[in-house]
Amino acid sequence: MSDKRVYLYDSTLRDGAQTQGVDFSATDKAAIAQSLDLLGIDYIEGGWPGANPTDDAFFGNPPTLHRAKLAAFGMTRRAGRSADNDPGLAPVVSSGADVITLVGKSWDFQCTVALGVDLDENLRMIGDSIRHATTKAKEVIYDAEHFFDGYKGNPDYALKCLKAAHDNGARWVVLCDTNGGTLPDEVERIVAAVTKVVPGSHVGIHCHNDTENAVANSLAAVRAGARQIQGTLNGLGERCGNANLISLIPSLVLKMGYETGLSASDMTRLTQVSRELDERLNRAPLRNAAYVGEAAFAHKGGLHVSAVEKDPKCYEHIAPELVGNHRKILVSDQAGRSNFVARFREIGLDIDPKDPRIAGMMDEVKQREFSGYSYDGAEASFELLARSYLGEVPEYYRLSSFRVIDERRWNARGDLITLSEATVKVSLRDATQMAVAEGNGPVNALDAALRKVLLPVYPELQDLKLVDYKVRILTPEAATAAVTRVLIESADRRGNTWTTVGVSGNVIDASYNALRDAIVYKLFRDGASV
Amino acid sequence: MSDKRVYLYDSTLRDGAQTQGVDFSATDKAAIAQSLDLLGIDYIEGGWPGANPTDDAFFGNPPTLHRAKLAAFGMTRRAGRSADNDPGLAPVVSSGADVITLVGKSWDFQCTVALGVDLDENLRMIGDSIRHATTKAKEVIYDAEHFFDGYKGNPDYALKCLKAAHDNGARWVVLCDTNGGTLPDEVERIVAAVTKVVPGSHVGIHCHNDTENAVANSLAAVRAGARQIQGTLNGLGERCGNANLISLIPSLVLKMGYETGLSASDMTRLTQVSRELDERLNRAPLRNAAYVGEAAFAHKGGLHVSAVEKDPKCYEHIAPELVGNHRKILVSDQAGRSNFVARFREIGLDIDPKDPRIAGMMDEVKQREFSGYSYDGAEASFELLARSYLGEVPEYYRLSSFRVIDERRWNARGDLITLSEATVKVSLRDATQMAVAEGNGPVNALDAALRKVLLPVYPELQDLKLVDYKVRILTPEAATAAVTRVLIESADRRGNTWTTVGVSGNVIDASYNALRDAIVYKLFRDGASV
User: Fold this and answer.
1) Which segment of A216-225, A485-494, B85-94, B266-275 scores lowest on mean pLDDT?
2) Complete DSSP assignment for A21-78
3) Considering CB atoms only, which of B297, B442, B468 is closest to A508?
4) What keywords would UniProt list here (chains A, B) (predicted)?
5) Cβ-defined contact of B442 to A439 (cutoff 8 Å)
């Protein structure tokens, strides 16, 4: 095996599950494991057998993996017990997983203060547990908790802990920066010292992001000789999270020349794998995530854009396609003609750069931006504006009027309640229709009333969900005459999301404008017939 | 000056303003500059005079700074022009800022491909522009765009560019990793090479986060001798953002032993400064942000909590108070009491830490926070809640009911208009009164109707202005059943501002709750008599 081969160990399902607000089901875990397997990760840590019902269910019915090894996590035996008669260790070693990863102490302070365990007994706990596990699994890994703090406090003892694991058959000793406080230069220095005792091909690194250095620390460890990296998808994990595998893999492979289990074709799936996890967690992907974020290859200024069109390496550190991402040209009031044309091309609008209508469109956009519109975060509204200008968007419906009533009063049960009710009058296929609906707020009521009228004609709207709603006052200094900008994010069941914008002196009017674009964009994309 | 002094240069208002979706007004910029000044940042880059109306307005009426120097950003002169007759350079050098920062090329490829400029002429463009700027400002900084790519491609030419700036009077040459693709070990190696040509005390670093290494890169540069770091609050910036000053300052000061302009007491404001910026941008603070995130010192239970209670350093890499954050125990609320007492003291509420009412107040706050309230950015609402619990806040008025009607229709002149009209029913000094008013939105109408009733009794309200209104959906996954949080910022003529919060399933209801607190707080502060 090449000296450049680095093994990737994913802990999304174990350490990642410690994230505040994250609560994986056994089904979630199986699906994520399969996604990691398909990606080409070497080790997938599934959880801690015996610790909770979800992990028991997962290991009771483990997913079929084709490339990765499944790892079960546990802790070294308790003090004063034998390893084969330890109730905590038993479910771990008998879980049937290919790999057993056992965490143990390596910091003398931690042994004496947190555990109250004799330092020599701790060495025996490590050795016994590892030796016992090697009789039950193909491969055993020792996770050295608090290794860096331990090394800084007492290097001899910390190294003895690693030796105890290594000498008793651990395939890997993994150095954990448990508190996340170690900086890259310290990591590099300490890992280099470790590799004099345990060969680097048997040393792993496990970092946390408490100083925003988890990725740099992991890469520093590899430079110093470590050949296993532990991390999680999107840096999930308690406190500030674990090392983000999605960010560190491309640097490792594309920039530092290391090999992993991922082929070049696997690498192009990184963006998708990252976003799928957010989808599962029902949270918006980080726009500015390294490599895979929606904004990672976005260009705003006019100068940047014309330079990127001349040669992408002027403003792109890698080709976005290598990680499955793509270039994005933003529209803003700084935009020159080259931005516009590039942006049109991106939305699939095939227009001759010399088309005289471009100047008119630019005027329209600039005028709207002057009045408070911003198409930076509202690509769907931009596309509708451009296509409408070219006469491509039909009039799916025409709103004649609406009225919304919000009322706060005491109800019959003596509770103070607030009700919103909307009435809309709409022209649709040459008929005028009215509808009324309630909602938990004026915009929600408007949405509900509009759907009542539109759904029978456009069943596509059944599959339209409003997922976020944001309001911003643009001219706070104008106080009551302020202009309001509303952004609405919508989604459909196929996982498409799009953002629309509305601007008005009246927040309800601005909201309606954004809502209208959300609906029209959905109908246009689906090719609804008028 | 000590060799350990590192100067901090903030570019939130210039490079940070390039972030997708960020759109600072001149008022925003002034407020952020003052916050940075108060924090102890050395240089504040305000923008690019002449580039857009916002930056012109900002430099036309710059905020008063007490500790920081204000910097104006611009570009070296064009090819074939003289520096004192360059229309781009003129507004920058005549902006009146203490410091002028000029960006120029240092990459031969960039000169020939993007600019089509002769390499020798580029050196003259740098030298001439810097020399010209030194006659107009106290200090001049050269930003070497694409420096690392340039150095890797042609080290001699890249260093010549720096020399041209340094020899012509630049106080600093700043090495920009414009594409963000350079890794920490490369940064360290290249900065070390630069300091052989320009002394480290004149070298700065400007990193982008495209590989999630911007913080590590900045720290690596300092280790190699650089003594200025450029970055932004919360890592704002285009694509994946700039180096996050909020993350790197604590590592620099608390772990690496460097000195900055921040005193130990300034350091405790980092968490607040970070969250204030997010509040201004109307976005949720990152829970897992290094050092300042809500989860940065959160402990989820069991072993970790008991270990932390024995000795915090078992699971905390620094004491959270050093950066103004606090420990959060997710399963037990024993840690909360001292935090509460500290918050009371902060608002001037003098209460015995052993007062039995504290437990009740804590329950009330926790219950409200559970339902979506957040008092982090809404100190006025927190103060009212606490003082109301202690019976200190009189009932200035009682709202019986309100009704708001928003109507979009065609007016007599044939224009499409949206009108909002509110009716309120209020008990006041034992009489019930009704009033109706119009506004440019439902909340504005409600505010107007309330004032009609309240003003004759409380003339203090004449001097109450709503300056900002923000809406955030807290549970986007709940779609139409989402909980909404509204923040209202108010001001009076004496320059006091205060923020209040309202939460409800109905946005109008949430808005009213925040509005009520804004009014009551004003009356309470002014000692209005009931």
Assistant:
1) A485-494
2) T----HHHHHHHHHHHHHHT-SEEEEE-TTT-HHHHHHHHSPPP-SSPEEEEEEEPPP
3) B442
4) Amino-acid biosynthesis, Branched-chain amino acid biosynthesis, Isoleucine biosynthesis, Transferase
5) no
Q: Give the closest residue to B403 by CA, choosing from B516, B509, B487, B481.
A: B509
**Is residue B258 a contact partner of residue B245, using CB atoms and an 8 Å limit?**
no
Contacts of A307 in chain B (CB under 8 A): 110, 113-114
The DSSP output letter for A452 is: H
What percent of chain B shows pLDDT beyond 70? 93
The verdict on A224 and A370 lying in the same domain is: no
The domain tally of chain B equals 3
A1 within a domain of the structure (yes/no):
no
C-alpha distance from residue A430 to each of A395, A397, A433 (Å): 12, 9, 10
What average pLDDT does this structure show over B499-503?
A: 91
- Residues A346, A217: one domain? no
Residues B525 and B421 in one domain: no
Rounded distance, CA B159 to CA B175, Å?
A: 10
Instruction: Give the chain B residue whose CA is nearest to the CA of A217.
Output: B216
Task: Output the pLDDT for position B332.
Answer: 35
Place B69 in a pLDDT band, splitting at 50, 70 and 90. very high
Please tell me if residue A478 touches chain B, with a CB cutoff of 8 Å. no
Domain presence at residue A497: no
pLDDT single digits (tens) B370-386: 677 777 668 899 899 98
Most confident segment among B79-93, B194-208, B440-454: B194-208
Same domain, B473 and B415: no
Ranges in chain A, pLDDT < 50: 333, 480
Q: Which two tokens stand for residue A450?
A: 């509009």
Whether residues A215 and B216 touch (CB distance < 8 A) is answered with yes
Q: What is the CATH number of the domain that holds A74?
A: 3.20.20.70
Whether residue A256 and residue B509 make contact (CB cut-off 8 A), yes or no, is no
Provide the ipTM.
0.77
| Sheet with B465-473, edge to edge strand ranges | A497-504, A484-491, A465-473, B465-473, B484-491, B497-504
Contacts of B400 in chain A (CB under 8 A): 409-410
Look up residue A241 and give its two tokens. 């999270």
Residues of A in contact with B19 (CB under 8 A): 288, 295
What is the domain-level CATH number for residue B505?
3.30.160.340
Residues 305-344 of B with CB under 8 A from A: 306-307, 310-311, 313-318, 330
Q: Which residues in chain B are closer than 8 Å to A507, comparing Cβ atoms?
A: 441-443
Flag if A220 and B439 touch (Cβ within 8 Å).
no
- Chain B residues near residue A191 by CB distance under 8 angstroms: none
Q: Do B444 and B478 sit in the same domain of this protein?
A: no
Whether B472 and A470 lie within 8 Å, measured CB to CB: yes
Measure CB to CB from residue B20 to each of A18, A377, A400 and give the nearest one: A377
**How remote is the C-alpha of B137 from its chain's centroid?**
27
- Same domain, residue pair A142 and A255: yes
pLDDT band at B136 (very low <50, low <70, confident <90, very high): very high
Beta strands in B88-223 (DSSP E): 99-105, 139-145, 172-176, 203-206
Q: How far is A64 from chain B (nearest CA, A)?
A: 31
For residue range A411-448, what is the model confidence (pLDDT) as tens digits?
Answer: 888 888 889 999 999 999 889 999 999 988 898 899 99
B266 close to B39: Cβ distance less than 8 angstroms: yes
- Residue B260: its pLDDT value, please? 98
pLDDT at position B335 is 40
pLDDT digits (tens, 9 = 90+) for B450-485: 999 999 999 999 989 888 888 877 765 555 456 888
Q: Residue A417 sits in a domain of what CATH number?
A: 3.30.160
Name the A residues in 209-238 with CB < 8 Å from any B CB: 209-213, 215-217, 219-220, 223, 235, 238
Of A20, A293, A444, the CB nearest to B240: A293
Domain interval for residue B172: 7-262
